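Here comes an entry:

___
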Amino acid sequence: MAILTAKIVLKHLYPPVLGVAAGRPGRETDERRNTTRFGRIPAANNAAASKAKGIYPSSENLKDCEYSGAIENITKGDKMEFNVINASLEKQNSDCIVVGFFRSSDLSSVAKKLNPVSIDYINTLLKRWEFKGKIGQTLLLHPVPNLLPRCILLMGCSKASEFDEHRYKQVMKKAITTLEDNGLKEAICLLTQLDVKSLSSCQKANHQKTDYLNDIDWKIRQAVISIQETLYLFEPLKTKKTPPCKLEKILFQVEKNSELANAEIALQQGLAIAAGIKATKDIANQPPNICNAEYLHTQACELAKKHSANMTVEAIGEEEMTKLGMNAYLAVGRGSKNESLMSIIKYKGNHSDQNAKPIVLVGKGITFDSGGISLKPAASMDQMKYDMCGAATVYGVMCALAQLKLPLNVIGVLAGCENMPSSKAYRPGDIITTMSGQTVEVINTDAEGRMVLCDALTYVERFDPELVIDIATLTGACVTALGNHISGLMANHDALAEELMTASEQAGDRAWRLPLTDEYTKQLDSNFADMANIGGHTAGGAITAGCFLSRFTTKYHWAHLDIAGTALPSGKEKGATGRPVALLTQFLLNRISKQQSNTKH
């Protein structure tokens, strides 16, 4: 392949904040306990390794970073190679060119450029086959005269006026499965050059800017994430594996050489976010007889070992929790033979200010939630292994930010525990003194996530955090309110909530803010303790759970993401979704852009 060479100077490696003006589970046997006891385990991997070079340099080198190389930038994903190119399409020796076609319209702008080269071959076949461009409709044209690529894949995109972010991802995923089904190894994807419309009622209701939708960088990043998600398989426990993917390489075309630098960054960001999503899915999909709190800690240690220059891990076991007075956390795990264990992952990427206050992410990690004494119904109880998706999300975000080497200080907390019934289990009617000193009357042992989180949220006060975000499959009520498409968001700080809402729209990983008001807080009143662990009635259950947590977050800015509906799909498509890794990674990227903007001014 003939490629031009060039020397590109990247003025910044963190593009401006996109679209921002220059701002179910959760439903929540008397055996001897494991003999292993975890106290405070010393921090692992504390080697003062030299700063590793990566996609993003350390913050002291964020001035002019020269990138020397070819106009074709190559990045390898887990199973796929991704390139960004700027070259004549008809001269590219690829298996296929993927082009979008809108319903009841003429050829797209890209197809119009290719049609004359093919001596009107494309237009002629379109008329012959009556290709209407319906969403998901495909037409494979081959061989195409005067083009080196073996074929052209036309993708139906519905009406141009209806081609929004959801349809963009839908068409991208359909294109990948079509290429794979036809045994093609390499393709040039031109879907990133289509105009994407803003049709989201969430965006309109929150007055979100949506100009990023037609930023080539945004479209490349979303394409990479969609492709990697489409090809995801979880088969480590299957004896018969799916044959390896035939598709090996995807090339994205940019129209200008000046777009290559940021397109390459978008490619790297997309791969990192996709890797974080995959890591989250891989852990969440493990069965509960493998994935317990100790397993979560092992995974955290492996991650820190891989990124030892910037990352360390420590564990807080039951012995240390007892000394700290984390009685609510301990109560939940008391009925299980698997020991409760909280893993603390510390990432120090801000090399210019090692003492900068950290952003803290706290993930609920109930590795199996039977409901405890308040036992759940048997139907679908197998899905209660997903009650640790909050912790899995935190792990995935830590994977992504470490891969990107973001110049931030971030602490990830995996609050691992198992909720089982036994003679040692905590009971309805128990009154427990939390780490904060506040007392809680247990009304329902199946509202265990908030019991674990309240102590974890108190524990992280010691880090003097810039802000804290907890992520949890906390309530079935949130699924009732928002379904499986949008996460519930609550916060004690409006600016933080707005940042998360903006990031959720940019990432296509949507959230919706719910209120925290006194009317709901009063539902937690108890005659015998400072509060009950559930509200007096079922209405507003997601909000009362958030109100409960808010009583333990008065010393810092805090937000809560209830992902009970979004962490896993309903129905036949079992498996973790990896949400909200994309939202949180986008939030961190936006924080960097915000810091740089503040520094300039």
Observations:
- Confidence is low (pLDDT under 50) at residues 1-73.
- The chain has two domains: 52-59+276-498+561-600, 87-253.
